[in-house]
Predict the structure.
Amino acid sequence: MIDDKAVVSRLWAVVPAAGRGSRFGAALPKQYLPLAGKTVIEHSIAALLRCPEINEVLVALHADDKTFIELACAKHPKVKSVTGGLERAESVELALAALTGAAATDWVLVHDAARPCLSDADVQALLLKGREHPLGAILAARVVDTVKRGNALREAVETVDRNALWRALTPQLFRYGELRAALKHCREHALPVTDEASAMEQFGGRPLLVEGSHRNIKITYPDDLTIATAFLAGGVND
């Protein structure tokens, strides 16, 4: 792992947005659904653009996407797009490969297109603590509900100790070169990748968990839009 604090590193951001949002059940991909006067993805990208350190925001899109280019955020000088893949990991790999000028020691933030309630405070906490860690870090929230393990019949068979459990959020922050290597390793060994941290873990790393706000929800089901609307109305940076 890179641990040279003397290295001057730039900061990039990647937004995988090639998914079609099948669990949501809407005609439009969930990142393009209306939310508080904009689309979901516009709020997500705006949260990144509020961080002046970010050099570029690269959005990985579905090959047939004709919607993103019509959004106001697509015309921002720091925002670029690239064609993504069938899976999240593939989209992130393609976006990283398209970051022209990125060095191995640069940092990359990967943020979900469907997390519109990201606060500036969480971004700054992740950058501060993550760049002090030799590997990097992810925003995460402690599990507060009682967790059950179920069987094939959907019967509760065990109560799981939640004290060491966290929900992985985004952004997730890693060195450019190490993240590319980890994703390549997982692809070549057919290892499942659910987020960037899982790729780093399977590559031998232990990302730092930076506690973030429970308001940083991912739009997955229709009710989530109502919750996100309330959070945005109240101000995610309050």
About this structure: The mean pLDDT is 94. The chain has six helices and eleven strands.
